[in-house]
Amino acid sequence: MQIAAPYLLFLGNTPHRLDAKTASGILDWRPQLCAGQCRLDAGTVDLGLPDMTPAAAAAAGVRTLVIGVATFGGALDEAWIDTLLAAIHAGLDIASGMHARLGENPRIAAAARQAGVRLFDVRHANAHFDVGSGRKRSGRRMLMVGVDCAVGKKYAALAIHRAFARRGMAADFRATGQTGILIAGAGIAIDAVVADFAAGAAEALSPDNEPGHWDVIEGQGSLFHPAYAGVSLALLHGSQPDALVLCHDPRRTHIDGYPDYPLPTLAACIAANEQAARLTNRAARCIAVALNTRDMGESQRADAFARAHGETGLVVFDPIATGADAVVDTLLAEARELPQASPHTPGDHP
């Protein structure tokens, strides 16, 4: 996909920044691509960009309207359609990370054909993936895993990749969701792959590489999420991670949107993810904890770091507030490198 910039970030009518994580992620990591925001009413979350109508954005040189919100289940909100049509009539392409395809809406499809604009369904890979093989691949892999959804797995991966790049170390950020793909320009939306092939897609995302090369893989979901644990397990098996980074928002007490499901302890989450990862890489282990401390004061952040370190004994960082240099420092300072993955032997369970 070659999605033309600059972008107009469409925020719909959501009042919550967490629901605008696609737009927030693009703005945080590729601000140079973001010309403005489009909001449907005054109560909509404000990212601090200039408010623009689609027509005004087109006049200012914007090329693509990016749907920057994620609805539950990934459906297009009917309240958005008139604005999306206005963008098409103004000559803007539209990029969407929703499960619902833009072209499946008859009005959008007809308008796009008439206007000659492009519709990008970022979440849908037009590729065939094999089932997971469990085959040992060369190179190193680091996977972000979560206590819950939307706790900063993408940000942690991007920060770690940036830290590798600063040291001149060979590394790639591997996007597994729509926002990561829009940031990186490539990737596979794992949660849109048919379940039988999801582990195989994870293998395809991080193929054989040089022995010292790191693939830093954006995680999805959580093993403790009642709806989205499946995609997490596919990534754990298909990525064959040498290293895991646990991502957490210390202010949460239950799975977001599921008040009957309390969050596990960090220790329990690490144990479950390590056990699952060791099906395909017996050497997998957690090496750090990434905390989302957005809007916390310095003392609150320090307390959260101390609690997480006390519980796990691991390096603790915030991708935005502190960066991830400490993670790379830990890898470089170890007396020995992380052991290479061992191929799985049938019947040899961790």
Automatic annotation (TrEMBL):
<dbReference type="Pfam" id="PF07755">
    <property type="entry name" value="DUF1611"/>
</dbReference>
<feature type="domain" description="D-glutamate N-acetyltransferase-like N-terminal">
    <location>
        <begin position="46"/>
        <end position="124"/>
    </location>
</feature>
<feature type="domain" description="D-glutamate N-acetyltransferase-like C-terminal">
    <location>
        <begin position="131"/>
        <end position="328"/>
    </location>
</feature>
<protein>
    <recommendedName>
        <fullName>DUF1611 domain-containing protein</fullName>
    </recommendedName>
</protein>
<dbReference type="InterPro" id="IPR027417">
    <property type="entry name" value="P-loop_NTPase"/>
</dbReference>
<dbReference type="InterPro" id="IPR035086">
    <property type="entry name" value="DgcN-like_C"/>
</dbReference>
<dbReference type="InterPro" id="IPR011669">
    <property type="entry name" value="DgcN-like"/>
</dbReference>
<dbReference type="InterPro" id="IPR035402">
    <property type="entry name" value="DgcN-like_N"/>
</dbReference>
<dbReference type="Pfam" id="PF17396">
    <property type="entry name" value="DUF1611_N"/>
</dbReference>
